[in-house]
Amino acid sequence: MVLDIGHIWASMSPLNKVILFILLGMGILSVAVTVERILAYARSAKDSRLFAGKVAPLIQDWRVDEIEELSRKHKHSNLAKLFGAIARRYIDAIDDDGGVSPVELARNEAERRKEHLGAELRRGFSGLATVGSIAPFVGLLGTVVGIIAAFQGIGASGGGGMSSVMNGIAEALIETAIGLMVAIPAVVMFNYLSARSGSIETALARSAGELLDEMENNHARPVAKRRGESAAA
Fold first, then answer.
1. Running DSSP on this structure, what letter comes out for residue 158?
2. Largest separation between any pair of C-alpha atoms in the chain
3. Nearest to 142 by CA among 192, 110, 177
4. Structure pTM?
5. What is the mean pLDDT of residues 14-39?
6. How many alpha carbons fall within 13 Å on the CB side of residue 95?
7. In degrees to the nearest 10, what's the CA dihedral of 111, 112, 114, 120?
């Protein structure tokens, strides 16, 4: 059996065509979110590798203010965003005489920043989840509408027989098939991206913990350079 797309389109009711366009829009949305997230993760990973190679000696020499400056040069790196925020809060706290230690304030900032980055990593996931959940039902709605239209057409013509009924149902089932074709990849990509973002969040949390450990270990050690001034000044 060969599908005649032109005939199927011509036989669709206006409501069926609207439902089909909705399904196509869902498919485009899921592809757009998937591609954008994959590219964003790849760009961040590449920039983070460059940042990690440069930030290690700064931590070793305890040049915290240079960590903040370096993070501004790696705008696509989630690691740089996290380290920059932690270092900035630590430096600001050194100049304050509050009752909370700079390390504790930096730790609190790390938690807030991780939550923000986690939300950024999961951007668009709700759209993918929605497409994966409702696309089959939208396709089923199109099928039901198509079957109703097919029976109404047969009733209005006063004939047709079993062959016409089956042809009408077969054409109506196309939208259920399209709904499944949209939903299945959306669910697969949602699960893949969720796992990917989860692994990134775990790596960020581990790296932040290592930086905070260094801050805890070196909190009494003067910052090598701060705000353009030497430690001795």
1. T
2. 99
3. 177
4. 0.81
5. 93
6. 7
7. 170
